[in-house]
Amino acid sequence: MLASLYAHEIFHAWNVKRMRPAEMVPYRYDRPQPTALLWISEGITDYYADLAEVRSGLTTPDQFYATTTGKIEEVASAPAVALEDASLSAWVKPVDGTDDTYYPKGSLAGLLLDIMIRDASDNRRSLDTVMREMYASSWKRSRGFTNEEWWQAVSRAAGGRSFAEFEKRYVDGRDEFPWDSVLPLGGLACWWSERCCRILEYRARRMGRDVV
Ligand SMILES: [Zn+2]
User: 52 and 173 in contact (C-beta within 8 Å)?
Assistant: First the structure.
Protein backbone atom coordinates (compact mmCIF):
# COMPACT_ATOMS: atom_id res chain seq x y z
CA MET A 1 0.00 0.00 0.00
CA LEU A 2 2.73 2.43 0.99
CA ALA A 3 4.87 1.27 -1.94
CA SER A 4 1.95 1.87 -4.25
CA LEU A 5 1.51 5.40 -2.90
CA TYR A 6 5.22 6.14 -3.29
CA ALA A 7 5.25 4.72 -6.82
CA HIS A 8 2.32 6.96 -7.73
CA GLU A 9 3.82 10.12 -6.27
CA ILE A 10 7.27 9.48 -7.70
CA PHE A 11 5.76 8.99 -11.15
CA HIS A 12 4.16 12.43 -10.76
CA ALA A 13 7.66 13.90 -10.86
CA TRP A 14 7.45 13.06 -14.54
CA ASN A 15 3.75 12.90 -15.41
CA VAL A 16 2.15 16.12 -14.07
CA LYS A 17 5.11 17.90 -12.52
CA ARG A 18 6.66 17.97 -15.98
CA MET A 19 4.47 16.73 -18.84
CA ARG A 20 0.93 17.91 -18.26
CA PRO A 21 -2.21 19.17 -20.01
CA ALA A 22 -1.97 22.58 -21.65
CA GLU A 23 -4.65 23.91 -19.26
CA MET A 24 -2.12 23.57 -16.45
CA VAL A 25 0.71 25.49 -18.13
CA PRO A 26 1.79 27.64 -16.48
CA TYR A 27 0.69 26.37 -13.08
CA ARG A 28 -1.50 28.79 -11.16
CA TYR A 29 -1.83 28.20 -7.47
CA ASP A 30 -4.35 30.98 -6.92
CA ARG A 31 -7.25 29.49 -8.89
CA PRO A 32 -8.58 26.15 -10.21
CA GLN A 33 -7.21 24.88 -13.52
CA PRO A 34 -9.84 22.38 -14.73
CA THR A 35 -8.83 19.95 -17.46
CA ALA A 36 -10.65 17.07 -19.14
CA LEU A 37 -7.34 15.21 -19.10
CA LEU A 38 -6.97 14.66 -15.38
CA TRP A 39 -7.58 10.95 -16.07
CA ILE A 40 -4.19 10.97 -17.84
CA SER A 41 -2.45 12.94 -15.11
CA GLU A 42 -3.85 10.87 -12.23
CA GLY A 43 -5.27 7.67 -13.71
CA ILE A 44 -2.37 6.84 -15.98
CA THR A 45 0.02 7.76 -13.20
CA ASP A 46 -1.79 5.15 -11.13
CA TYR A 47 -1.41 2.60 -13.92
CA TYR A 48 2.32 3.26 -14.08
CA ALA A 49 2.56 2.96 -10.30
CA ASP A 50 1.16 -0.58 -10.62
CA LEU A 51 3.50 -1.30 -13.52
CA ALA A 52 6.52 0.07 -11.64
CA GLU A 53 5.81 -2.28 -8.76
CA VAL A 54 5.55 -5.37 -10.95
CA ARG A 55 8.39 -4.37 -13.28
CA SER A 56 10.70 -3.87 -10.30
CA GLY A 57 9.76 -7.25 -8.84
CA LEU A 58 8.16 -5.71 -5.78
CA THR A 59 4.88 -7.38 -6.71
CA THR A 60 4.07 -10.39 -8.88
CA PRO A 61 2.03 -10.37 -12.09
CA ASP A 62 -0.76 -12.07 -10.14
CA GLN A 63 -0.75 -9.20 -7.64
CA PHE A 64 -0.89 -6.77 -10.55
CA TYR A 65 -3.98 -8.57 -11.86
CA ALA A 66 -5.53 -8.53 -8.40
CA THR A 67 -4.98 -4.77 -8.14
CA THR A 68 -6.44 -4.33 -11.59
CA THR A 69 -9.54 -6.37 -10.83
CA GLY A 70 -9.99 -4.32 -7.67
CA LYS A 71 -10.08 -1.22 -9.85
CA ILE A 72 -12.56 -2.84 -12.24
CA GLU A 73 -14.84 -3.65 -9.33
CA GLU A 74 -14.45 -0.16 -7.88
CA VAL A 75 -15.47 1.46 -11.16
CA ALA A 76 -18.33 -1.00 -11.67
CA SER A 77 -19.76 -0.21 -8.25
CA ALA A 78 -19.63 3.58 -8.77
CA PRO A 79 -22.17 5.51 -10.88
CA ALA A 80 -21.25 5.51 -14.58
CA VAL A 81 -19.31 8.64 -15.47
CA ALA A 82 -17.26 9.65 -18.50
CA LEU A 83 -13.55 10.02 -17.84
CA GLU A 84 -13.55 13.54 -19.26
CA ASP A 85 -16.49 14.57 -17.06
CA ALA A 86 -14.95 13.01 -13.97
CA SER A 87 -11.74 14.88 -14.77
CA LEU A 88 -13.44 18.24 -15.23
CA SER A 89 -15.60 17.92 -12.14
CA ALA A 90 -12.65 17.18 -9.85
CA TRP A 91 -12.60 20.81 -8.78
CA VAL A 92 -16.25 20.82 -7.69
CA LYS A 93 -15.98 17.55 -5.79
CA PRO A 94 -19.23 15.82 -6.82
CA VAL A 95 -21.11 14.03 -4.04
CA ASP A 96 -22.82 11.45 -6.26
CA GLY A 97 -20.09 8.86 -5.76
CA THR A 98 -18.15 9.72 -8.91
CA ASP A 99 -15.48 11.85 -7.27
CA ASP A 100 -12.05 10.28 -7.67
CA THR A 101 -13.34 7.88 -10.37
CA TYR A 102 -10.73 9.32 -12.71
CA TYR A 103 -8.07 7.47 -10.71
CA PRO A 104 -9.18 3.82 -11.09
CA LYS A 105 -11.02 4.33 -14.36
CA GLY A 106 -8.16 6.35 -15.86
CA SER A 107 -5.74 3.64 -14.76
CA LEU A 108 -7.87 0.99 -16.49
CA ALA A 109 -8.03 3.13 -19.63
CA GLY A 110 -4.23 3.08 -19.56
CA LEU A 111 -4.24 -0.72 -19.44
CA LEU A 112 -6.67 -0.92 -22.37
CA LEU A 113 -4.64 1.52 -24.47
CA ASP A 114 -1.43 -0.31 -23.61
CA ILE A 115 -2.87 -3.64 -24.76
CA MET A 116 -4.36 -2.16 -27.94
CA ILE A 117 -1.11 -0.41 -28.91
CA ARG A 118 0.93 -3.57 -28.23
CA ASP A 119 -1.51 -5.62 -30.25
CA ALA A 120 -1.51 -3.19 -33.17
CA SER A 121 2.29 -2.90 -33.22
CA ASP A 122 3.11 -6.56 -32.64
CA ASN A 123 4.41 -5.55 -29.21
CA ARG A 124 7.01 -3.17 -30.67
CA ARG A 125 5.35 -0.13 -29.14
CA SER A 126 3.28 0.44 -26.02
CA LEU A 127 1.81 3.14 -23.86
CA ASP A 128 5.43 3.83 -22.88
CA THR A 129 5.97 5.03 -26.45
CA VAL A 130 3.12 7.51 -26.08
CA MET A 131 4.34 8.79 -22.74
CA ARG A 132 7.88 9.30 -24.04
CA GLU A 133 6.58 11.10 -27.10
CA MET A 134 4.27 13.38 -25.10
CA TYR A 135 7.15 14.16 -22.76
CA ALA A 136 9.40 15.13 -25.65
CA SER A 137 6.78 17.10 -27.56
CA SER A 138 5.37 19.04 -24.61
CA TRP A 139 7.59 19.37 -21.53
CA LYS A 140 10.79 19.43 -23.54
CA ARG A 141 9.32 22.28 -25.56
CA SER A 142 8.08 24.17 -22.50
CA ARG A 143 4.41 23.62 -23.27
CA GLY A 144 1.49 21.46 -22.26
CA PHE A 145 -0.24 18.82 -24.40
CA THR A 146 -3.75 18.90 -25.78
CA ASN A 147 -6.38 16.20 -26.02
CA GLU A 148 -5.86 16.07 -29.77
CA GLU A 149 -2.11 15.62 -29.40
CA TRP A 150 -2.63 12.80 -26.90
CA TRP A 151 -4.88 10.81 -29.24
CA GLN A 152 -2.62 11.50 -32.22
CA ALA A 153 0.30 10.03 -30.27
CA VAL A 154 -1.77 7.00 -29.26
CA SER A 155 -2.80 6.48 -32.88
CA ARG A 156 0.78 6.81 -34.14
CA ALA A 157 2.01 4.26 -31.61
CA ALA A 158 -0.69 1.89 -32.83
CA GLY A 159 0.48 2.22 -36.43
CA GLY A 160 -2.08 4.82 -37.44
CA ARG A 161 -5.14 3.05 -36.08
CA SER A 162 -7.95 5.47 -35.23
CA PHE A 163 -8.97 5.78 -31.59
CA ALA A 164 -11.82 8.20 -32.33
CA GLU A 165 -14.45 5.58 -31.56
CA PHE A 166 -12.64 4.54 -28.37
CA GLU A 167 -12.44 8.13 -27.17
CA LYS A 168 -16.07 8.82 -28.05
CA ARG A 169 -17.44 5.76 -26.27
CA TYR A 170 -15.12 5.19 -23.34
CA VAL A 171 -13.46 8.52 -22.53
CA ASP A 172 -15.87 11.23 -23.60
CA GLY A 173 -18.74 8.75 -23.22
CA ARG A 174 -19.62 6.46 -20.36
CA ASP A 175 -19.92 3.09 -22.09
CA GLU A 176 -18.64 0.17 -20.08
CA PHE A 177 -15.05 -0.67 -21.00
CA PRO A 178 -14.72 -3.39 -23.67
CA TRP A 179 -12.98 -5.97 -21.49
CA ASP A 180 -14.13 -8.98 -23.46
CA SER A 181 -12.72 -7.73 -26.74
CA VAL A 182 -9.49 -6.09 -25.51
CA LEU A 183 -8.15 -8.31 -22.72
CA PRO A 184 -7.79 -11.41 -24.95
CA LEU A 185 -5.46 -9.36 -27.20
CA GLY A 186 -3.03 -9.38 -24.26
CA GLY A 187 -3.60 -13.02 -23.40
CA LEU A 188 -5.90 -12.08 -20.55
CA ALA A 189 -9.49 -12.72 -19.68
CA CYS A 190 -11.88 -11.28 -17.15
CA TRP A 191 -14.47 -13.42 -15.40
CA TRP A 192 -17.34 -12.03 -13.42
CA SER A 193 -19.18 -13.82 -10.71
CA GLU A 194 -21.89 -11.71 -9.16
CA ARG A 195 -20.18 -8.42 -8.33
CA CYS A 196 -16.65 -9.76 -8.28
CA CYS A 197 -14.34 -10.05 -11.20
CA ARG A 198 -11.07 -11.77 -11.74
CA ILE A 199 -8.47 -11.28 -14.43
CA LEU A 200 -6.41 -14.27 -15.38
CA GLU A 201 -3.93 -15.15 -18.03
CA TYR A 202 -5.41 -17.77 -20.23
CA ARG A 203 -2.79 -18.09 -22.87
CA ALA A 204 0.95 -18.57 -22.57
CA ARG A 205 2.44 -17.10 -19.41
CA ARG A 206 4.91 -15.25 -21.59
CA MET A 207 2.15 -13.18 -23.17
CA GLY A 208 1.05 -11.98 -19.76
CA ARG A 209 4.57 -10.90 -18.89
CA ASP A 210 4.83 -9.10 -22.20
CA VAL A 211 1.78 -7.12 -21.30
CA VAL A 212 3.05 -6.26 -17.88
ZN1 LIG B 1 -1.75 11.67 -8.03
Answer: no
